[in-house]
Amino acid sequence: MSDQLQPSKSANDADDSVGRKLRLRRTIRGLSLQEVADKAEISVSLLSQIERGVATPSLRSLRLICSALKMPVGWLFDVPEGENDDIIVRSSARRLLNLSSNAMTKEMLSPDAIPGIQMLKIIIQPGGSSGQQPYSNDSGSKCGVVIAGQLGLDVAGQEHILDAGDSFAFAATKLHRFWCAGDQPVEIIWVVTPAIY
Q1: In terms of DSSP bridges, do strands 151-155 and 158-162 run parallel, antiparallel, or are they unpaired?
Q2: Distance between CA 25 and CA 12 in Å, rounded?
Q3: Where are the domains of the chain?
Q4: pTM recorded for the entire structure
Q5: What is the pLDDT of residues 114-172, one digit of tens each?
Q6: In the CATH scheme, what is the homologous superfamily, with its name and number, of domain 5-76?
């Protein structure tokens, strides 16, 4: 386990920031320390120390924890210091999730400090989709507005085609899927409660 833990003499700002982000992401995903530790194949004690900023994870451990939380490692480091805070997300400092297998990118527009709601900008290339199989969330709601292009949206087996300016809302517990319905990329502002990323 020596390759997984590099004890720090004190909880410096960087360790605390990484730990805080990991704890917030775990809370947003509704996972216990034990569940994440099991998935990451590390001890609960180590994970707790990392979240509290009293231990510095190795790169290997960090990758395993982020994988368990279904988040890119870059989300821990990719925002320039001072650019964002608990209220503001600067356009130049948005976190990006690139789902190349689905020809889709998601930009996080809302700050992590408010896990009850999350706003994203989603761009789907022609032929891209959320997947062939509909999915649902355990709770919450989803809504949004199409900024450009055409969005295909299937909610509970009912298909809709939305154009720029059209908006939507539905219970996230309903089976749903979405896709680019036209020959130009579709751009959507998408809001979900509670936060899922």
Answers
A1: antiparallel
A2: 20
A3: 5-76, 91-193
A4: 0.70
A5: 888 999 999 999 999 998 899 998 899 999 999 999 999 999 999 999 999 999 999 99
A6: lambda repressor-like DNA-binding domains (1.10.260.40)
> CA nearest 180: which of 118, 71, 104, 120?
104
Q: Most distant CA pair in the chain: distance in Å?
A: 57
User: Does the fold of domain 91-193 match that of domain 5-76?
Assistant: no
Residue whose structure tokens are 């605390």: 16
- Domain 91-193 belongs to what architecture? Sandwich (2.60)
